[in-house]
Amino acid sequence: MSPESVAPGSVRSPEEVNEQIRALWQRAGGSLSAQERAEYELLVVEWAAAIRGAVIAAA
Hints:
The protein is an all-alpha fold. Helix content is 68%, strand content 0%. It is built from two helices and no strands. α1 (14-28) runs antiparallel to α2 (34-58).
């Protein structure tokens, strides 16, 4: 997954991103390759942004 794969300004829900993270770990069998690790890191950053957005929207 590259940063370009998510359009700037598009925001998925934390649940959607979390599901993608879970699917990545399941596909990887619990051990990430270098490419999968990079994808995971991008997903975690996206998930954190989605969580922040949800908290701000709730406030």
